[in-house]
Write a structure and sequence with these properties.
This protein is an alpha+beta fold. Among the domains are: 107 residues, no CATH class; 114 residues, no CATH class. The chain has 10 helices and 12 strands. The strands form 2 sheets. It has a 6-stranded antiparallel beta barrel. It has a 6-stranded antiparallel sheet with strand order 9-8-7-10-11-12. A hairpin with a 7-residue loop joins β4 and β5. It starts with 6 loop residues before the first helix and ends with a helix.
Length: 394
């Protein structure tokens, strides 16, 4: 028969066991938690001027000398790969060729509208109104097999030096978290797959790759921000390794892991980037490969959290934030620990209160029921928090 002195020990054991119900998966899910802090937002701001130098369109000499200013703003993912503030991004998006093409696509519309204004003023002696301009646009584009055809005509004029395009501004900034201020980034290396940026920051989290050989047909997992999905490795006839999965957005950074959740490669939209590729770029940039202290501390915090040791996890998570204050995932886990411990304290008081009122033979069964109720209570609170966080991110 159980005596009163045994109840606290049994109740403590039940509470600890209930905490295991919500422990994180030690494979892919844990890997995603370690990867997420190192996937950050990069912002590219550009300003260009397109100038028509020579006669571009028959009967529209008035266009000669006109200039068109384009201001671009693109957001894309970057991945922290070295704790001293080194980041890789898609090199195609920030290339001068892409900026020129974006300029042409944007300014082609303005050029078309100017031809409409010129023609209408010449023919009718008055400015064209918006409705007439819309009708004219359909007619004008039909002469070039659509708006894409006219953009190609502008590209051809640029290639033949009839049109010039100058880039006045090309600046890159980085946001390490949703509520952090932008940090200026410097471009230090680029190739056909990725570009390497540098920001003035230390102790950043990183994605640490394992050096393995990816084979055709390898089943892997693809981790992006807030999403994990399966994928396949494909090797083309030219020997290039490609990633096949549902997300093909070149502005998103894909971290490829093996079935255990170990990061083995990146895909930023221009093909797979292996550890060997990254090491070569860092070496050419005179960057020494280092391990992230923030990664190590966060990994230990996750272990403590998974094992239900919330006191230790909380201490380690605070150390993570001392190293890297922008660590959003550390902040989220601290909130979850506070929610869980607050629930434990609240229901612990109720358990003690009920035990004082209940005959001895029913106390143990009642305590078990209350602990299970506590588990459901905590789960619901965490679920509601995660749903709210997801809505805020969207």
């Amino acid at each position: 028969m159980l005596v009163m002195t045994e109840y606290p020990k049994i109740l403590l054991l039940l509470i600890l066991l209930s905490g295991l119900i919500y422990s994180e998966n030690l494979g892919i899910e844990k890997s995603a938690k370690l990867i997420e802090p190192a996937v950050i937002e990069v912002n590219l701001v550009t300003k260009t001027t397109l100038t028509i130098q020579k006669e571009f369109l028959p009967d529209f000499k008035e266009l000669i000398g006109r200039s068109y200013v384009y201001s671009g703003n693109k957001k894309l993912d970057g991945v922290l790969v070295n704790p001293d503030g080194y980041i890789i991004i898609n090199s195609n998006i920030i290339s001068n060729e892409t900026i020129v093409n974006d300029t042409i696509d944007f300014d082609a519309t303005a050029i078309m509208e100017d031809t409409g204004r010129i023609g209408h003023l010449r023919g009718y002696g008055m400015e064209i109104n918006n409705n007439e301009l819309i009708s004219y646009k359909n007619y004008f584009y039909s002469q070039f097999n659509g708006s894409g055809g006219f953009s190609r005509a502008v590209s051809s004029a640029y290639a033949n030096n009839i049109i010039s395009i100058s880039i006045q501004n090309k600046s890159i900034t980085v946001k390490l978290s949703n509520d952090s201020e932008p940090i200026d980034a410097k471009l230090i290396y680029t190739n056909d797959k990725f570009a390497l940026l540098k920001i003035e920051k230390t102790n950043t989290p990183t994605v640490e790759l394992k050096n393995i050989s990816l084979q055709n047909g390898d089943q892997i997992f693809v981790v992006t921000k807030n999403k994990t999905e399966p994928g396949l490795i494909e090797i083309t006839d030219s020997g290039q390794k490609m990633l096949k999965h549902t997300n093909e957005d070149e502005k998103k950074a894909d971290v490829i892991t093996d079935y255990k959740g170990t990061p083995v490669a990146f895909d930023l939209g221009n093909g797979i980037i292996t550890k060997e590729d990254l090491e070569e770029a860092l070496k050419k940039s005179n960057v020494t490969e280092e391990s992230s202290l923030t990664n190590a501390q966060f990994r230990e915090a996750l272990e403590s959290y998974t094992n239900g040791d919330y006191t230790s996890a909380k201490e380690k998570l605070k150390k993570v934030l001392e190293l890297y204050p922008e660590h959003e995932q550390a902040k989220e886990y601290l909130e979850e620990i506070d929610t869980k411990t607050a629930g434990f304290n609240e229901w612990g008081e109720k358990i003690n209160e009920e035990l004082g009122k209940t005959p001895n033979e029913f106390k143990f069964v009642g305590a078990v029921v209350l602990v299970l109720a506590l588990s459901i209570y905590v789960l619901n609170k965490l679920k509601n928090k995660k749903q709210k966080r997801g809505r805020d991110q969207n």
